[in-house]
Amino acid sequence: MAEVKMFGAWGSPFSKRVEMGLKLKGVEYEYIEEDLNNKSSLLLNYNPVHKKVPVLVHNGKPIAESLIILEYIDEAWEGPDILPKDPYERANARFWAKFIDEKCMPPMWKACWSIGEERAKAKEEASEALKFLENEINGQKFFGGDTIGLVDIAANFIGYWFRIAEEIVGLELMTQDKYPNLCKWAEEYCKCSFVKENLPPKDKLADIFKGIIQAQSAPK
Amino acid sequence: MADELVLLDVHVSMFGMRVRIALAEKGIEYEYREENLANKSTLLLETNPVHKKIPVLIHNGKPICESLIIVEYIDEVWKDKSPLLPSDPYQRAKARFWADFVDKKVLFFFCSCFCLSVFVKKKIWRTKGEELEAAKKELIDALELLEGELGDKPYFNGDNFGFPDLAIITFYSWFHTYETCANFSIEKHCPKLIKWAKRCMERESVSKSLADPVTVYEFVLMLKKKYGH
């Protein structure tokens, strides 16, 4: 019998991406919550290179890096497509997923937790990056078209985590007037029952974010 | 209708080389266009407005960007000739993992060591002695990890040359530059990696696609001079 295990962290968007992928395909799996401040020896054995979550273990074989895991899930199991079938559209999906990881998430996250000039710079960078996504979604329901696909799954941070953090820190980056398409996408995305099941509770996340602010402003 | 393929590239780019190897492995004809990164063509800016970088493969007018994404595209479109990725999903995931590792770890250190602001956003140009040593150590650690992963296999892909080999081998053309600039020997730390590299170089697709190491070094010297080094 196939054995599927997943090492994750409840608050991690990367971890939730993998869970979304597994649930999309209807794969049963054992979930193992990792304490990121005290990583298990199992995790470190399965991912010695990066030592991070998420890690998917299928029949004893580990796969790491969320986007790579999602492609694996798409190939290993039948069910709704995570990536499109057409090679050009697949390349496009991969491009935007990578773009989100490399060009959107880092400055967006930095903009939340930095101050002064550093925040202004990160905000500028994030704004530019989001403009491209705004054009790409272009009135479609999802990046994947009518149904959720790789890019939508990859954009979970933008659709959910970031909106919560942004509100708490008073950032005003992904605003309705500047990014109407993206905001509409985020609304649809979070309303979608399938996505809702794979998001951490808002209040728990908010507590974490408020904790970060407190730690930052604590006397050193 | 014959396929129309144009590759926007720079001869010394390890990313461009990956695409060249893939096209050569599949025996695909294409038009090569050398870009001047200090004066990018309109075509490049139009086909890659997001990153404005090479390589860009334009297939019947449709652009594909990012070297590993281009290579997978080539492998999927020309799937009946010389497959680059294995067919087993787990082996494919492993192949993608190591290609991704190289991009994440090795490139950054190469660039920060040698201040290649042409390939990376214009960050610090000069690294001080200590920073260079630290970056060198990180690079060696990463290469030793690769050496460990290779083990006694003839290729990262197993018995046959494939996607992860293609992704990693192109950095080999830059080894001479790094060794010279930072005064160390990669072979001393990673003898198996060097043996593997020479094995890959026996393939015509690789030897014809990689830039000559001396050309790469001269290119870097030219950059250093140009940017007032």
From TrEMBL, chain A:
<dbReference type="InterPro" id="IPR004046">
    <property type="entry name" value="GST_C"/>
</dbReference>
<dbReference type="InterPro" id="IPR010987">
    <property type="entry name" value="Glutathione-S-Trfase_C-like"/>
</dbReference>
<keyword id="KW-0808">Transferase</keyword>
<dbReference type="InterPro" id="IPR036249">
    <property type="entry name" value="Thioredoxin-like_sf"/>
</dbReference>
<dbReference type="InterPro" id="IPR045073">
    <property type="entry name" value="Omega/Tau-like"/>
</dbReference>
<dbReference type="Pfam" id="PF02798">
    <property type="entry name" value="GST_N"/>
</dbReference>
<dbReference type="InterPro" id="IPR045074">
    <property type="entry name" value="GST_C_Tau"/>
</dbReference>
<comment type="similarity">
    <text>Belongs to the GST superfamily.</text>
</comment>
<dbReference type="Pfam" id="PF00043">
    <property type="entry name" value="GST_C"/>
</dbReference>
<protein>
    <recommendedName>
        <fullName>glutathione transferase</fullName>
        <ecNumber>2.5.1.18</ecNumber>
    </recommendedName>
</protein>
<feature type="domain" description="GST C-terminal">
    <location>
        <begin position="86"/>
        <end position="208"/>
    </location>
</feature>
<dbReference type="InterPro" id="IPR036282">
    <property type="entry name" value="Glutathione-S-Trfase_C_sf"/>
</dbReference>
<dbReference type="InterPro" id="IPR004045">
    <property type="entry name" value="Glutathione_S-Trfase_N"/>
</dbReference>
<feature type="domain" description="GST N-terminal">
    <location>
        <begin position="2"/>
        <end position="81"/>
    </location>
</feature>
<dbReference type="InterPro" id="IPR040079">
    <property type="entry name" value="Glutathione_S-Trfase"/>
</dbReference>
Automatic annotation (TrEMBL), chain B:
<dbReference type="InterPro" id="IPR036249">
    <property type="entry name" value="Thioredoxin-like_sf"/>
</dbReference>
<dbReference type="Pfam" id="PF00043">
    <property type="entry name" value="GST_C"/>
</dbReference>
<dbReference type="InterPro" id="IPR045074">
    <property type="entry name" value="GST_C_Tau"/>
</dbReference>
<dbReference type="InterPro" id="IPR004045">
    <property type="entry name" value="Glutathione_S-Trfase_N"/>
</dbReference>
<dbReference type="InterPro" id="IPR040079">
    <property type="entry name" value="Glutathione_S-Trfase"/>
</dbReference>
<dbReference type="InterPro" id="IPR045073">
    <property type="entry name" value="Omega/Tau-like"/>
</dbReference>
<dbReference type="InterPro" id="IPR036282">
    <property type="entry name" value="Glutathione-S-Trfase_C_sf"/>
</dbReference>
<feature type="domain" description="GST C-terminal">
    <location>
        <begin position="88"/>
        <end position="217"/>
    </location>
</feature>
<feature type="domain" description="GST N-terminal">
    <location>
        <begin position="3"/>
        <end position="82"/>
    </location>
</feature>
<comment type="similarity">
    <text>Belongs to the GST superfamily.</text>
</comment>
<dbReference type="Pfam" id="PF02798">
    <property type="entry name" value="GST_N"/>
</dbReference>
<dbReference type="InterPro" id="IPR010987">
    <property type="entry name" value="Glutathione-S-Trfase_C-like"/>
</dbReference>
<dbReference type="InterPro" id="IPR004046">
    <property type="entry name" value="GST_C"/>
</dbReference>
<keyword id="KW-0808">Transferase</keyword>
<protein>
    <recommendedName>
        <fullName>glutathione transferase</fullName>
        <ecNumber>2.5.1.18</ecNumber>
    </recommendedName>
</protein>
